[in-house]
Amino acid sequence: MALLETKRLTKSFGALTAVNGVSLAVEAGSLHSIIGPNGAGKTTLFNLLTGTFPPTSGQILFDQNDITGTPASRVAHLGLARSYQRTTVFPAFSLFDNVWVAAFATGKSWKGLLHKKTSDYAEVTGRARQALQDVGLEQKSTQLARQLSHGEQRQLELAIALAAAPRVLLLDEPAAGLSPEETRRMVALVRALKGRYTMVLIEHKMDIIMSVSDRISVMHFGSLIAEGTPAEIQKNADVRRAYLGGVAA
Amino acid sequence: MKKPFLLILISIFLLPLVVRPAIASEIWIFAIFGLGANLLLGYTGLLSFGQSTFFGSAAYVAGWMMKVHGINAFLALVAGIGVGALSAAAVGYLCVQRSGLYFIMLTFALNQLFYFTAYQWTSVTGGEDGMPGVPRPALAGIDFKDPLIYYAFVSLLFLLALFLMKRITESPLGKILQAIRENEVRAEAVGYNVPRFKLLAFVVGGAFSGLAGVLYAMLFGIVPLEAISFVFSGNVVFATLIGGSGSLYGPVIGSFVFIWLSESMSTVWARWPLLLGVAFVLVVMFLRGGLVEAWTRFWTWRSSKQRD
């Protein structure tokens, strides 16, 4: 059953149609990758799914409910969490505070918002610690985010998304700018999370995509040109053309 | 963090021995004003150039009610806090729709709107002459006419305000506001309605400004037009930056330095604001965390020296 679905989703910025009639179905518990050349509209699709801006037309269904046009701060509460291609953390916060503030947002109750101490929320604190542990940063929880290496910041980026205990995890190029060694670690991390979350992954590195995905959708100039298992996609002629520089037929 | 609190307590007791009680009271009143402004500036990262809107409105309304309707001090404080919060809700609602430079200009423009309303509405506010004749009504049989008793009253309310602000900054709200300061996009994405939280910061900060406004009116027995002017809005930002924005005690130290300097220097040297200008440039260039940072730097330097 599809947990996250789009129906003819379109987004235009003036004359440019960044996302063009995309219909996508992400099965519950699967890892669904979206690939495509630069400027194919992958990140715009993520921005639509998470309510950063509303689509021009089309629908987004989450767990059979129409969530089209729901603003970003509400989408998070529905159980969709995302990470960013460009690291988007809270630089002056400790790692623990980074994940704590994300965990609190989706906590059961905001009672005591103005007067309780942050340490009074045991459930939130537990979830925050778990998120740091999941990405392997628990040893550095008191360090400031801005003091981390780029690789560690990418791990924190992921931990902030995990802290919300989402149902669907949208990862926008988690391995962007990582060294081969760091990339290996990130792939292992994504693989470890597979099964625990329904995941949508944008990535450029083909070896990652082919080794972790259950299904792959290929975007080109805003449209979906192919969808299938990794093996099917590798054989697809349209996909090869899109990647090797030709215009898709 | 017991040390700063102890220092403040000592200062409260020693201050009236050094300066006139009126100036001593003004320092703590301005500190309350600064606590509210710092919630926006230091914690949420919003530079509001319109804090005197809430300070002045509260001073006028509560002052008028004491003067004309003879309400007691307690009701006046409640009215002032209410007016401060309400005016901040109205102004904040408009301002949080925009960010960056537009946000700053909106706070400033709305401040001017309130200023010129007060300037024109002479039958109530007295316009340029200010609104004189604000009494200092008694509360529960305590007569505040004695400047030292009033000073004790102000000090007590300041400590209460400080305690409340400490709780707020250590609460989830404090964390969320700082998260907005650090990264608005991410704060929104993890599930916080950023404009609404900014508005909340305005309202809470406005309530503190309102309290300060009433105490100010009662202290001097007059609401000068300045109390709602952009100069006053600038002063509180200035004092907060000098003391150290983003830390709880920053605006307290800033207000201490600012009021003391302005009161003691203005009689000696008419061009004293020059000094403030120099201090401001130094802080912005070398000491972004203000005097609080200077203090912590000094102590880490000393402890490293002792270790050698």
Automatic annotation (TrEMBL), chain A:
It comes from Vineibacter terrae. Keywords: ATP-binding, Nucleotide-binding, Transport. The keyword ATP-binding applies. Residues 4-246 form the ABC transporter domain. One of its GO terms (molecular function) is ATP binding. PROSITE patterns: ABC_TRANSPORTER_2. CDD domains: ABC_Mj1267_LivG_branched. The keyword Phosphoprotein does not apply. This is ABC transporter ATP-binding protein.
